[in-house]
Amino acid sequence: MPQKTLLSWSSGKDSAWALHTLRQDPQVDVVGLFCTVNQAFDRVAMHGVRVELLLQQAKNVGLPLQIISIPYPCSNEAYAEIMTAFVAEAKQENIQCFAFGDLFLEDIRKYREDRLKDTGITPLFPLWGMPTKTLSRTMVASGLKAAITCLDPKKISESFAGREFNTSFLNDLPADVDPCGEYGEFHSFAFDGPMFQFPVEISLGETVLRDGFVFTDLLPRSS
To answer: What is the distance between the alpha carbons of residues 219 and 201, in angstroms, rounded to a whole number?
Structure first.
């Protein structure tokens, strides 16, 4: 029997590609997504994506979404308490696995494994260890489309804000920037690709500097 799995969904390209990868694994049944949302701004934590677009995204990949509201600011203790309660609820729903789109950062993987230890829920890392230089090109070649919604101007030029994650974007990246942004250089919103039944129609809003990060607002196309 395939394992009943929830996918940690940031709204970005890595989450989307993790879904695409998991759907090709007969041992895994992805039954839903979960995402943390900043209560103060009503947006996806770090990515800065509007909840309206997040919900549309989940609908267009054909999966139910569970939103986990977190306060702003949120202490490590508060975050751990919120997630512990969510894990307990998932276990009651007979969820067997949580999947994550992490690529190679050992400390993040260990944190997730430690949080799920002895809970009865197994962590899955379908993209783990894939070389990001190859993976990023494979994503683009396979039709995955994403827009850059947040970047760290200490690590990457502000000129990349709002750009589409495509071949041109990858060609323009400095050599010291991970092409998947795994060190936090940038975050994205996936709006089309092989994991979508329909694309999410978006347009670019304003770009602002907030809390040391550059955010580009994405708007539903109808706006």
So the answer is: 9
